[in-house]
Amino acid sequence: MPPHKARKAAARSAIVVLARNWFQFLKDQGAQNIALPVTVLFALLIRWCVGLHGYSGMGTPPLYGDYEAQRHWMEITVHLSPSQWYFYDLEYWGLDYPPLTAFQSWICGIVATYINPSWVALGESRGIETHASKLFMRASALVLEFLVYVPAVVLLFQSRRVQMSWVARQTAIFSVLIQPCLILVDHGHFQYNAVMIGFLVWAVYFAAQESYVAMAIAFCCSFMFKQMGLYYAPAVFAFLLAKCFQPRHGIVLFVKLGLAVLGTIGIMLLPWIGSLAQLQQILFRVFPVARGLYEDKVANVWCAVNVAVKLRSIFEPQSLVRLATGATALVFLPSCCHLFYMLKRADYTQRANAVKLLKYGLLNTSLAFFLFSFQVHEKSILVPLAPALLLIDDEPWAVNWFVQVALFSLYPLLFVDGQHIPYWVLAVGWSFFRSCPGCPADTQIPRTVLKLQWLSTLAMLAIHTAHALVPAPASLPDIYVVLNVTFSCAMFVGFLGYFNYRQFTCAQPDRSGSKQKKD
After folding, report:
1. Which of 167, 182, 237, 245 is nearest to 207 (CA)?
2. Which stretches of 246-373 are DSSP H helices?
3. Max Cα–Cα distance, the chain, nearest Å
4. Across the strands, what pairs with 376?
5. pLDDT tens, residue by residue, 382-410
6. Would you state the pLDDT for residue 8?
7. CA-CA distance, 300 to 175, in Å (whole number)?
8. 295 or 8: whose pLDDT is higher?
9. Please, how many CA atoms are within 13 Å of residue 452, restricted to the half-sphere of its CB?
10. For residues 12 and 104, what is the distance between their CA atoms, to the nearest angstrom?
11. Would you list the DSSP string of 28-73?
12. pTM over 0.85
C-alpha cells in the first residue's frame, strides 16, 4: 500500500470506532478493572443529563402526557384495590399496561407516599410538577433500569459462553448502554421501557446458559410488563419448542416450560384470577383495538401507505385487524420456521450459534411486528432495536445504521417533548463513538452499502435542515413528519430484508469449537 494511503487508513482506523480504541488503550495499560465502572458511570451521567430537559406533556394541562400517566398509575395503585386499577377514571390516563407494570407503579407509589404523600395524593396530585416530584420520577426510571436492564447487559456480554474478546465485550456493553433511543424515550420523554427490554436480555442470557425454564420466566416478565414484549413471542416460542424436540430435553422440558409460563402468568394475575369480568377488562385495556391501526405518525407500513391510500376510511376496524395480523404473520413466519428447523437438528448443539440465531429471530420477528402489526406506537421501535444491539459485534455497520435511522424516526416525538439538545448531542455522540457514519475499518463492507449509508445520513440531515429553516406550507402542516415516516419506514423495510438474509446465511454451526476469540 502506498504511504499516503496507509496514513489515511490508519487515521480512519483511529477515528471510526473510538469506543473500541478506548478499551484497547485500557487493556494495553493494564487498567481493565476500571473499564466497567467507567462505562456504567458514564451511562448514568448521560441519563441524568437528559432528564434535566423536557418530558412528555410538561406544562400542558389538562391531560399532560406519558410522564403524568406513569405518575397517575402510582397514585391509583397505591390508594385503590387491584379490582379498581383497570376501571378507575379511564378518561384520565386509565391503566392500560399489563399487571407487572401495575405492581411496579404500586411499589413506586409506596416509596413516593413514604417520602412525600402529596406526590401521589388521590385526585389531588394530578399534573403535579414540583421539582422534588420530578426528581423522584426521574430517579425511579434510573433505579429500575439499573436494577433490571444494566445487569442483564453486563452479564450477557461478560458470559464465558459468549465468544468475544475482552475489548469487544467492553465495547459492546458500552455501545448498548449509550444507545440514544432508549435513553431519550425513557429519561427524556419518560417511560420504563428498559424494564421490559431488560427482561428480554435476561431471557437471552438464560438461553446462553441453557437455563430454558428461567428463560421462559424472564420472557413472561417482559410481556407482562409491557404488551409490546409479545413482539418477541413467535421467536421465543420457536426457540424453546425446538429445544423440546432435541433428544436430551424432550417432553420433560416441554412440561417444565408449560408449568413455568402458566405459573408466572397466574401469579401476576392472582389479584384478578377469580373474576372473569376483571380479566376481560385487563384484556380490553391492554389490547385497545378501538384506538385504530396506528398511533399518531409512526414509521411503519400502514402509516406510510396511508399517505397515498386512506386505509382507515376504506376498511372497517375489524378488517384492518385481520389485514394487519395476516401481514405480520406472513412476514415473521419465515424467520421463525427457519429458527425452529435449525435448532431442532440433532447436530445443531453449539450454544453460541444457537443464541446468535435466537438474536436474529428476535430482531426479525419484532421488526415485522413493528412494521405490520395493529396499533403500533412510534416508541415501539425500541423493541426490535434491543435484539439488534445484542448483535452489535456481529453486525457493526448494520446496527450502527439501524440506530441512526431509529433515532431519526423518533424525532417528531422528541421534538414535541423539547428534547432538541439531547437529541443532537446523543446523535452526534453515537456517530462519534460508533461510526462516522461508516463502519469499522476492519469490517469488509461493499462500497455501494457505504455510499447508501452516507446518502441516508445526508437525507436525514436535509429533512432536519428543512424542518428548522423552511416553515411547512399551510396546506401541508405535517409535511416534515410525513417525510420522516416514509423515509424511516423504507429504511426499516430494507433492514428487515437484510437481517432476514443474515439469519439464513449465518445459520451454519461453527465447526471450529468453542474456543474464545483472542485479542
Report:
1. 237
2. 250-268, 276-286, 301-305, 311-314, 317-344, 351-372
3. 77
4. 294
5. 999 999 999 998 998 899 999 999 999 99
6. 43
7. 26
8. 295
9. 14
10. 46
11. HTT-GGGHHHHHHHHHHHHHHHHTTS--TTTT-TTT--HHHHHHHH
12. yes
